[in-house]
Amino acid sequence: MAKAKSLSDYSLKLEKKSYDLTKSVLLRLVQGLVLFKRRKGEVIAGASTFFTLLSFAPALLLFINMVGLIIADNAGARDYVMRVVLESFPKVDSWIYNGIESVVNSQLHDSGLDFLKVAFLIFASMGISTSIVFGINILSKVDPDGGLLEDDLRSFFTGIGITIYMVLLVCVGHKGPVQEILQSFSWGRGFVILFDNSFISSILSLLFFSLFYKYCPSIKVATKDAFRGGATFVLCFLIGRSTYWIYVKYFKDDLVADYGQFTNFMIALIWIYFLMSCFYYGASVAYAGKEKIIPPNIKAKFKKKKKR
């Protein structure tokens, strides 16, 4: 009897903890949505989407240079990265892909590393990181100062961090020359197995974005809150990647009617906007700890009505 009662008490405690955890998670998600809407997260996501398109070519060239530095072969890095781009985005028209490839081929050297050109590419790519830092400042309730040196340095290091993360993510999630280099060493064969694993890619993304949400803003962010934001973004991304085909299947006819030959380009554009919205929603979840869902004046009115 005593043992059965003990099991019953343990079951009740576990059920209560599960309920409290579910309630806490749902409450934080709602708080994040409220903050996202109040701080116009959809507008910030649209601005970052624009800067992503504007800086896409220099960022891609910088990315290729980084991979080329690792494998000591810019031509191989170019083929590898372009294949990853083609696989990672929704299918676009061949003329768009060929146009991007021609820009890359005209600007990229077959060997060596031109530090002056890399510095220029970093500068040209900073539109993405600057818009992200600006958006993070807005969502974390920090007045963006714009042209101050501190913000510029923050944007610079943010861009470097994003580039390193993208290089690592590509090396982990896609077979290529990095895995071939590792396979040449006996100790590296185990790493190759880890590299070809989507679960490891998700863990890497979770760690990166948790650290990003913690250290990118000017305010102090608890590690637990940053982890919540990182987990939210990764979960939204995985859901979006798994269900994006539904949108394409049921709404592509409308897109074709509206945009004609630019339909696939618009699909890719919508995908980038979705990713940016998920990113800023994750940031909102991370920074929404003190956000009031019900304003104090409305809450006071409810209390008065209950007393009557």
UniProtKB/TrEMBL annotation:
The chain crosses the membrane at residues 43-72, 118-140, 152-170, 190-213, 225-247, 267-289. The keyword Cytoplasm does not apply. It is a multi-pass membrane protein. It comes from the Bacteria. It is found in: Cell membrane. InterPro entries: Virul_fac_BrkB. It holds the Pfam family Virul_fac_BrkB. Signal peptide: none annotated. Keywords: Cell membrane, Membrane, Transmembrane, Transmembrane helix. One of its GO terms (cellular component) is plasma membrane. The keyword Transmembrane applies. Its main location: membrane. This is Ribonuclease.
